[in-house]
Design a protein that fits this description.
- Helix 9 links the parallel strand 7 and strand 8.
- The N and C termini lie far apart (56 Å).
- The longest helix has 25 residues.
- This protein is an alpha/beta fold.
- It is globular and about 80 Å long.
- Helix 8 runs parallel beside helix 9.
- 53% of the residues lie in helices and 17% in strands.
- The chain has 2 domains: 191 residues, Alpha-Beta Barrel (TIM Barrel), CATH 3.20.20.70; 29 residues.
Amino acid sequence: MKVWLDTAVLDEIREAVSWGVVRGVTTNPTHIANAGVTDFRAHILEIIEIVQGPVSVEVVSTDWQGMVREAEEIARWSPHVVVKIPTIIEGLKAMKIVKDFATINATLIFSPNQAYMAAAAGAHYVSPFVNRLDAIGHDGMQLVRDCLTIFRNYNWDREVVAASIRTSLQVYECLLAGSHIVTMPFSVLKGLMDHPMTEIGLKMFLDDWARVSAALGDALRGR
């Protein structure tokens, strides 16, 4: 399973990439606004320079002609750009055209049928939103599993991007389900490494080493 970071904050991306586990980044208009971006193109290019992998950039038009125009523009920025298109009927119309010149990430997927429709229209990545479904009493992880089953049934070379991830448990469930990709905020990625027993064990080892090194020092000094 590949890890993508769900953010537009450059410091978070730099730090996460330095760990050697991040393979891509997903952005959306909310992330861009929260990051205080003033030059959209320059900001995306800086993210690409850091991650050297796929970076999803979302269109904001709601008609297919506008989506295609935006996709044509952002696809020229870099071969790493993945055009993010909402899974609505106008989005399907756009995907049918955009697939011929850019890689597509179909976003805002909340049902297996939507995932099928997006993939059939030409999306390479489909992004089921896990936590947003959980928040309204549905099973977001079941949607991920259903998407995976559908693509396996028909041998489609589409990739499921488990999105709207908010907990370490959801990441664990994505691993068990076999999701191709999971995209998560920096806080969740960092939380995957948190365990109290690791901290306790490290402190114990360092305390023991401090006693041993003190004794060794005394021995070397002839005490």
